[in-house]
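User: Hi! I'm working on a homework problem where we have to compare a predicted structure to a textbook description. Could you give me the structure for the chain below?
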Amino acid sequence: MKFLMVIYMAFTFNAFAQHLDKHQWSDRLILVFSPTSNDPMALEQLQELQNKKDGLTERKIFIYHIFDNGYRSNFSTESRTPPAQLEVEDRFKVMLVGLDGSEKFSADAPQKADVFLDLIDAMPMRQAELKNNEEE
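Assistant: Happy to help. Predicted structure tokens:
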């Protein structure tokens, strides 16, 4: 329920939230919102994240770029039409959602990828993941 509340705060929809809900407890999400698919701030953010793709994969991060009439996932160039009408804000926003589905960070300007990686590395669940990996 907490997961759906976080997503609902960002934009209004119903079926798309259920689509994102499949990530809870398996993926962390970075949601990049923009008024259009070619918004300069969104493109800058996505490029910054793509430059650290290996670090994102290691930390189980799934990327969604959500814009006026659709979305893309994990740097895909294919735009998809959401299963419900999105009401996206007419400004850029980036949000980190944790494995538990709660918002961990948001900003109104593009961020360095290391901001997200460092935030995740400081989280208790990530610390447990690292500890389990050392023991194996």
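For your comparison, note the following. Residues 1-14 have pLDDT under 50 and may be disordered. Residues 87 and 109 are 20 Å apart (CA to CA). Good luck with the assignment!
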